[in-house]
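Support case: user asked for a sample of complex input and structure output to validate their parser. Sending the pair below.
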Amino acid sequence: MSFKVIKPGFLATIQDYGRLSHGAHGMSRCGAMDEHAYAWGNYLLDNGFNSAVLEITFGSVELEALDDAFIVVTGADLNFRINGNPSVIWRNVQVHKGDIISWNSPKSGVRSYLAVKGGFEAETLFDSRSVNLRENIGSKIAVNDKLICKKSNNLGDKFISAQYIPNYNQYIVLRILPSYQFNEFSINQRDLFFNQTYTITNASDRSGCRLSGAPIAIKRDRMISEGMSYGSVEIATDGLPIILLKDAPTIGGYPKIGTVFSLDLAKLAQKQPNAKVRFKLISISESQSERAKFNQFFGIDES
Amino acid sequence: MHKIILAGESSILIYFGDKIDPALPENIANFANELKTELYELIVDLTPSYTSLLVTYNLNLTNHNEFSAKVESLLDGFKNNSNESKSNTIYIPVYYGLETGLDLERMLAEKNLDLETFIGIHTAKEYLVYAIGFSPVFAFLGEVDKSIQSPRLATPRINIPAGSVGIAESQTAIYPTDSSGGWNIVGRTLLDLSLNNPENINKFKTGDRVKFYSITRDEYVNNGGQL
């Protein structure tokens, strides 16, 4: 079973939970940008948490089913259609041989996930199927590519009740841990950081989300490069924040004011350039208990 | 001496010192090995750098306070035993020519050195791998002799050919793949360090040593080197 790529769109890549254990080799964590939508996609198909999906950014993608398949689309509403007819998302659906499935352009959110029963059987490179264009690991989908998966049939209806489907147009406040050099920023500079509304810039991608706003300063001349965790917020030389995301470099030498909570990064992954964000503090215990619940619900195990 | 700080909801950063020090990479690599042995089931990832180690752990199995306490107690008992180190020396053949060393002509003029002297200085040292990062297989090597140090280019190049050897301040490195970058390029190796050969992932480890040696234009070209 496979899907044939008719239109590859702007950026569509195979992603799984990520390449978690190669930091010492200089490899980013990779994996799906919106972990929430990603996890639901696999959940609704009874897949393992690490099953590979197709991450579609902004749309303009068209695939032809070369056999019957049981699929789920989650995440952004990119005007998903089957044979030209609007179709449901956040709910498993059967597609048949010859069906054309398509994503047009964003109605809400920017990243849509196509999950298939059993996951896509893309090549595993360095313990993950996740593509990382910055590191030349894998490539985005191209015309006539075949996206291989197992043939599957309806396993019974599964969906999310409407109340749990996120509203990606909602204003977001990113909760941030006081990590790294947080205490080296003066109270005035921290106040400036927490009391302003930042704007997401165009120069944002899978590596980092760059924000514009009033610059903040740190009294520190030189930093020695150190390991950067997922979600850490660099303050670059221009005083503006860069939130480090899935494909970010592993080490870097800018001071970091904190680390954004992972499930808030999932929400951030659905924001368009020019969207507004603010920050507020979260405690380590609160972030760990919320994430542990998420992991437990979706059967996520990083060991 | 050691300091543990919060890095993320499932990670901590351990500092082993506050200055770049050639003793640290091996020390950090040894402690990373100890963590892998002692806390095997809790560790998800380890990212060493010049003076620090980023440790990512499985928060399904532990939490920040408990995990930090475990690491703290291992650090207290940690005796760096350099006899156990498994550091290698990696030899890299380089053609230092004006065709491959894109910044060589300018640097020779700035430093008032002839090519032979320049090559002699760059190849004299065994460099230490301080960190791997920027991209896979990119090893930050130090420290470059003061007489050939040079700051990063004001405007980074869009495309530096794979295998290029660069200098930035006290560091030197090899670009494993075609890449953009701002280092001063002094030559090129014909070794394929890209992940086209997946074994290259283990080519360099922090604490390893790297020694460059000079090859002639003929040796470079006859073995498939591109100009």
